[in-house]
Amino acid sequence: MPLYSTLTDNELIVLLNEGDQLAYTEIYNRYWAVLYSHSRRMLRDDDEAMDIVQDVFTMLWKKASELNFTTSVQAYLYSSVRNQTLNYINRSKLKNNYLESLADFLEQGENVTDDQVIYREFVARIDKEISNLPPKMREIFEMSRNIGLSHKDIAEKLNITDHTVKKTINRALKLLRNQFPVFFTLF
Q1: Using CA atoms, how far apart are residues 60 and 165, in angstroms rounded to an integer?
Q2: Quick one: 39 exposed, middle or buried, by C-beta within 10 A (0-12, 13-18, 19+)?
């Protein structure tokens, strides 16, 4: 039985291809620490680096009989760890981008919902104040603002002058401005 620590990488690969578990263990012992360090430097995360190196070694054992090395086992393992680490980083970035996008959407969604609630409450308050106007004033104001009739059309329908319609609407607006001073200063 050969002393596996004295074998070259190429000799270990030949034995690994034949399913020799001790050859696998020797490769693992030779390269685990440096591969972990390599992945850890890239990720700055101990647990993820360990997982990646373990995955590479698991894949090495599962595919041992199929592997045909064109480079050294060291280069192959470094390349595998680097690729797995980069894949993890890309998945993490994608996940982070998705989470940031989702957070932005939720934040904007809350604002939209808040704005809609505030708007509805404001419209309800305006409607209440309009309903508190004197009946004739309310009728003229609603014909102007809700139906969209011109002063002349309102005057004809109610058999009053254009001037009376204009003055009545202006008084209604003045009363509403007094109820909502902050809103009307914005416009």
Answers
A1: 89
A2: buried
Residue 141 tokens, joined: 């104001």
CB atoms within 10 A of CB 88: 19
What are the φ/ψ torsions at residue 4 (nearest 5 degrees)?
A: -65, -30
Range 137-154 average pLDDT: 85
Structure letter (DSSP) for residue 132: T
DSSP E strands in the chain: the ranges are: none
Please write down the HEC assignment for all residues of 64-98. Answer: CCCCCCCCCHHHHHHHHHHHHHHHHHHHHHHHHHH
Contact 42, 89 (CB under 8 A): yes
Query: How does pLDDT run across 44-87, given as a tens digit for each residue?
Result: 888 888 999 999 999 989 888 887 777 788 888 888 888 888 88
Cβ(38)–Cβ(81) under 8 Å?
yes
DSSP code at position 144:
I
- What does the block give as tokens for 57? 């070694």
